[in-house]
């Protein structure tokens, strides 16, 4: 938090809580998708590095996530495609699969 009370989403504090933050984000997405399965969640990092980190996490956990979610990547030209794990994206979209 900045001195004026605002939040800087680009701040780097190196307090080793990255995995806790990512787990919190995943938990929120799972909860939201459970309550609103017809809705799509769009997310991106506040920097290219953070967006890349999201891609890495999606790739590492792909098989588990793919069982419950349709995962798409948002390309820099605005194109949306099924997430093939080998490309750089501007953002990501996930939606709960119909059961």
Describe the protein's architecture and organization.
- This protein has helices at residues 18-35, 48-60, 62-68; strands at residues 40-43, 69-74, 80-82, 91-96.
- By secondary structure, the protein is of the alpha+beta class.
- The protein has one domain (18-96).
- The model has no long low-confidence stretch (mean pLDDT 87).
- 38% of the residues lie in helices and 19% in strands.
- A four-stranded antiparallel sheet has the order 1-4-2-3.
Let me know the average pLDDT. Answer: 87
Quaternary status: single chain
Write down how many β-strands occur, each being a DSSP E stretch of 2 or more residues. 4
Q: Note the overall shape.
A: globular
Task: Using the CA coordinates, give the radius of gyration.
Answer: 14 Å
**Helix and strand succession?**
HEHHEEE
Counting DSSP H or I runs of 4 or more residues, the number of helices is: 3
What composes the largest sheet? 4 strands, antiparallel
Percent helix, as a range, is 25-40%
Low-confidence stretches: none
Taking the alpha carbons of the first and last residues, their distance comes to 41 Å
Q: Give the count of structural domains.
A: 1
Strand content: 15-25%
For the largest sheet, list the strands in their spatial order: 1-4-2-3
